[in-house]
């Protein structure tokens, strides 16, 4: 009998605690958790790419595609089911990810970052000038329903919260498993030495494609959840600053564990909430200083800082 | 020559802009031969290996492996056919542990083209790789990142990774370069003992003539992109042109 | 026909602006392998400083034409001061790190500078339109051109010409090209790479600030100015080829003309057109129209 995997245990415990806490937390905390966990899901996808040394500076593309897919389906087709909608977001982003992946897989380093940025800005350019989608203002997403029933505001919020918690824990478990497989372990291998991977008989581009589609699917689902939770979508979801924020969370978190992106995203959300309340004029400065500190002093992100302090203790 | 040829190279030519890196190379290698390639720096030895393994594409000529044309295939296709190589500068995963390096090599060798969604560190695979670490006598470095182990260990790891697949034809690009003179024979003994069990055909590039004499039954000498001499070690090393251009007169 | 004239005129003016902004960015990337996101902040700082100085200049009633020199002075001061701070205080410590990590560090700098700008100048817009109408107008056929715009074109050509002359006809320029071509070799040949980096970054910063300063009279300088500029400059630099100065000229022209064409013919495609070109070029020629591939040796 092997010892149980610590990450799996921690994730299952986090799931129980978070769902239970959902009944007591004030509404601002629930919203903060939903948005943070959703952003954590995107960062999880970026983390997998970052383990290969790739940084997508356009992940907001899939985040926005997920959000807009939900908004459109809800508005035009009157499908508002709370389970179905996020799946639509995932499907739309995945399809796009598979298609764009055929191009992205050929790119590395700065060129990967630039092409992903280009794609996201293309989508942004499309959104800001499309009047039927509300141009720069975007539009409101209808309240989701459960099996055709419309619940109270409170119940809807709790439901979305539980759904987000379940999704976050679910994808974290899935990615954790993926990172232990041969394909998953090729991520660091690829960053270290692509030539060797090729000479072991495997196509580096295939690994990158898989990672890219995974990242797209996660970002799409997260965008869908965010759109439902916030109740509004607009083109800024696809703008490069959103991508920058997502990359920021990834770097802040580190690549040591699938739990890291969620912790990092939560820290980001907390700083954001309090900074915007008490020191709105220096909020971006705090982010910038934190990012520089991570890059210069903790290249492994918050996670490695945590691990180091635990080893010392 | 013994047995049918594993590799048949015909009129292989490679031009980089105006520079001729390989010109009309004709060579044929039989099953289970141990061939040593010698030549001065820039003679085209590594280019030859790069061409055969698909890293560079020839300007003209053909390369047949057991009758199949390799020209136009990518390194990974050629690797999957059973033509593997190690590198002059070890190509390892520098931030990963020595064991993980081997696990990846064996995982990819096992999983074929599509798979790859099986756990990497399965009990069997870990056991097999640990056994191999012992064969190559690098088990002491099992959990050290490949970037920080001694150069000799890294070279052995690189070779162990190249042989993860049941290679039918193996190229070793200067297996003993960067290793202290007194350790060279020990390293070659380890490598050759490990390869003897595999029944592979081995082609190695080497500068050290003592090593060539001891391990290579056949020697191919390169000079300025051409083959200067090809045959049993004693004959080639005694050839006057080889002595002039490759090994130097001092050994005469 | 008139539309075509408008497109060409607008396109060239826009391209000149793009070139001034992008040439510094591509120079810095070419020499230092730093894709500087904070270039947008330098642009914004240049614009704000210029607008403030011009405002004070006219308030005191000094000679109006002097305000043009003031724009250049603002760019010079901002570029040199910020360039020194950023290069000596940050970039020097990132020497040898992954290119994408360096991009993130400059992104952090951009975030910090965004708030610094807001702390200094607040949230209100800073208009400084006076210099724009100083030079009068010229009419060419159906077009009525502002001479300030023509001066901008001249400035862009001057910068393009100077960089070309500086790189290919002077010794320090050749040293710079040597560093661009092969940094290790340049270092081995005894070129003081650190000093080359500092000088390059100072030139790049001044050009970024100059882009902002020269634009200040044409727009209302307000929040978020640098944010859009960054991606536009990225697009120009990527289309031309990262690190290539002739590439920046070509990229600016291509994007300037296409945007002008979109604005006149298909307004809803204005933003789309720019990034369509950027992605298409990346797909067809990943190293840009005038860039070239870097290969790895085994």
Structure characterization notes:
The complex is a heterotrimer of chains A (313), B (252) and C (298). With 313 residues, chain A is mainly α. Chain A is 74% helix and 1% strand. Chain B is built from nine helices and ten strands. The radius of gyration of chain B is 18 Å and the shape is globular. Chain B folds into two domains: 1-82 and 166-252, Rossmann fold; 94-164, no CATH class. Chain C has one domain (2-284): ABC transporter involved in vitamin B12 uptake, BtuC. Chain C is globular, with a radius of gyration of 19 Å. The model of chain C has no long low-confidence stretch (mean pLDDT 87). Chains in contact: A-B, A-C, B-C. Chains A and C meet through helix 5, helix 10 and helix 12 of A and helix 4, helix 9 and helix 11 of C.
Give me some keywords for this one:
heterotrimer, A: 313 residues, mainly alpha, two-stranded antiparallel sheet, 2 strands, B: 252 residues, Rossmann fold, six-stranded mixed beta sheet, 9 helices, 36% helix, globular
* Sheet with the most strands, sense and barrel status of chain B: 6 strands, mixed
Percent range for β-strand residues of chain B = 25-35%
Order of secondary-structure elements of chain A = HHHHHEHHHHEHHHH
The helix content of chain B is 25-40%
Short note summarizing the structure:
Chain B has helices at residues 45-52, 75-81, 98-111, 123-135, 151-162, 181-196, 209-215, 233-238, 240-247; strands at 5-16, 19-30, 34-39, 60-65, 68-69, 83-86, 169-173, 201-205, 218-223, 226-232. By secondary structure, chain B is of the alpha/beta class.
